[in-house]
């Protein structure tokens, strides 16, 4: 059945007319900033705690950071299908508030786990936090275009990604020092950030459901299959594949960096700074790419950024640790992060601009689910290589480099070439982005 484009209430339209930093967009930036900081404080602390030679290492053993990463990615794979449906059927602003409300008791559980020194309790809280974030993600990314419109979407994406990476920087940067100071302090900060995110979520109002009559699917994988059938083959599919493989490689990088702590004689704070340097680079790259893109999709940025990101990690994977130090490694991670920012911004714009409004959340959820599926596989592969096959964690960075260069080659010369010529869609094309007029007919 044909779908009509739901009109936003006057408050949302006038907010967009007032400029980029309207109440809704400001609230979204603050809310996702608090949530991303929370996620990364806890993730950083767990990666450090389960790294070799650290306090909780014996709980999971060799390759434990890979298991921590799996606990982050698997909930996204299982839940993003439900979350995408929900974000299309319901008001995204209400979903955002509901997820922030759920984060408060989850943060309280993490505080309790640190208080009683129970790694398993904290791991449960971490898994719940990932599950709640899975429901937040489609509403977050799906609401940006509704709030700011098409003309400023790339700039808004750059700001959201910059703020996300500043949040990652902050989370990583304070995770190590908080852990060195007191595990209890980690839990307290998690609760405070959850409360900040809840408060700012009330600023986001007036976003109407884009497809309220959408049929609810109980099979968590059905929405993915519907979306995949609709976007394959095509530009959105190519962008989603390129996006997903990047995050698979990035997952390995995040698991490897804490492993430099012991061989380089770093403190937990210095290890946090290494992770933070890449986050700063990604933020800078996202902001620059968003600014330079303006109202266009700059597909060539994907190739250039991917070459920088992949090349640096290929070299790092082959470089003896004795030749590295805090400054040189941090500088390399920063430059790789800048490349990553340029790689990501055009791909995100394609997924947002070229999907129909009533299906955008499900498209974004499917793209993210593919990413988290590949991240899960990458985490499992890392655990097998390091814990079972005895491969040095640092050599896996060379595999990340090969992966990224392969993806860039696919974009430049083979099946992903549509990314290079992507253009802003017309309003008419934007409303019918899916190949079939009605791939999922509500009952």
Question: What do these coordinates show?
Answer:
- With 443 residues, this protein is an all-alpha fold.
- It has a single domain, classed as MFS general substrate transporter like domains (Growth Hormone, Chain: A).
- The chain has 16 helices and no strands.
- Helix 2 (23-49) runs antiparallel to helix 4, helix 6 (119-148) runs antiparallel to helix 14 and helix 7 (153-181) packs antiparallel against helix 8 (183-201).
- The termini are close together.
What is this entry, summarized?
The protein is an all-alpha fold and 443 residues long. It contains 16 helices and no strands. The chain is globular.
List keywords for this structure.
443 residues; mainly alpha; 16 helices; disordered N terminus
Q: Which percent range describes the beta-strand content?
A: under 5%
* Mean pLDDT across all amino acids: 85
Q: Strand pairing plus helix content: what structural class?
A: mainly alpha
Please, how many helices?
A: 16
The CATH architecture comes to: Up-down Bundle
Runs in which pLDDT lies below 50 for 5 or more consecutive residues are 1-7, 430-443
Radius of gyration: 21 Å
Distance between the termini: 11 Å
Q: How many strands, what sense, and barrel or not for the largest sheet?
A: none
CATH superfamily: MFS general substrate transporter like domains
């Amino acid at each position: 059945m044909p779908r009509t484009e739901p009109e936003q209430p006057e408050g949302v339209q006038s907010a967009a007319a007032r400029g980029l930093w309207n109440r809704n967009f400001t609230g979204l930036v603050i809310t996702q900033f608090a949530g991303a900081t929370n996620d990364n404080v806890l993730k950083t602390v767990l990666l450090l705690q389960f790294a070799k030679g650290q306090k909780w290492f014996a709980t999971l053993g060799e390759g434990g950071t890979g298991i921590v990463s799996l606990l982050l990615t698997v909930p996204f794979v299982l839940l993003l299908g439900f979350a995408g449906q929900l974000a299309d059927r319901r008001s995204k602003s209400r979903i955002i508030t509901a997820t922030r409300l759920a984060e408060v008791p989850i943060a309280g559980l993490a505080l309790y786990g640190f208080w009683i020194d129970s790694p398993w309790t904290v791991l449960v809280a971490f898994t719940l936090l990932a599950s709640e974030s899975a429901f937040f993600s489609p509403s977050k990314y799906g609401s940006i275009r509704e709030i700011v419109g098409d003309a400023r979407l790339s700039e808004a994406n750059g700001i959201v990604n910059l703020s996300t990476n500043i949040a990652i920087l902050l989370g990583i940067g304070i995770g190590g020092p908080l852990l060195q100071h007191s595990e209890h302090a980690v839990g307290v900060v998690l609760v405070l950030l959850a409360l900040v995110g809840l408060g700012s979520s009330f600023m986001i109002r007036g976003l109407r459901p884009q497809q309220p009559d959408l049929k609810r699917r109980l099979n968590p994988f059905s929405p993915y299959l519907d979306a995949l059938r609709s976007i394959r083959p095509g530009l959105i599919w190519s962008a989603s594949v390129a996006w997903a493989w990047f995050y698979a490689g990035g997952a390995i990088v995040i698991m490897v960096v804490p492993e430099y702590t012991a061989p380089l004689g770093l403190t937990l704070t210095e290890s946090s700074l290494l992770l933070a340097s890449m986050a700063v680079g990604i933020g800078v790259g996202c902001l620059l790419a968003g600014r330079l893109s303006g109202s266009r999709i700059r597909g060539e940025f994907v190739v250039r950024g991917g070459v920088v990101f992949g090349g640096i990690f290929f070299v790092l994977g082959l470089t003896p640790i004795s030749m590295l130090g805090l400054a040189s490694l941090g500088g390399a991670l920063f430059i790789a992060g800048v490349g990553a920012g340029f790689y990501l911004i055009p791909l995100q714009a394609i997924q947002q601009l070229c999907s129909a409004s009533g299906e955008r959340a499900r498209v974004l959820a499917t793209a993210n689910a593919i990413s988290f599926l590949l991240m899960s596989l990458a985490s499992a592969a890392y655990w097998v290589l390091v814990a079972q096959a005895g491969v040095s964690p640092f050599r896996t960075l060379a595999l990340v480099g090969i992966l990224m260069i392969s993806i860039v080659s696919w974009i430049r010369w083979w099946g992903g070439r549509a990314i290079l010529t992507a253009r802003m869609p017309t309003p008419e094309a934007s409303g019918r982005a899916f190949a079939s007029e009605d791939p999922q007919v509500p009952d």
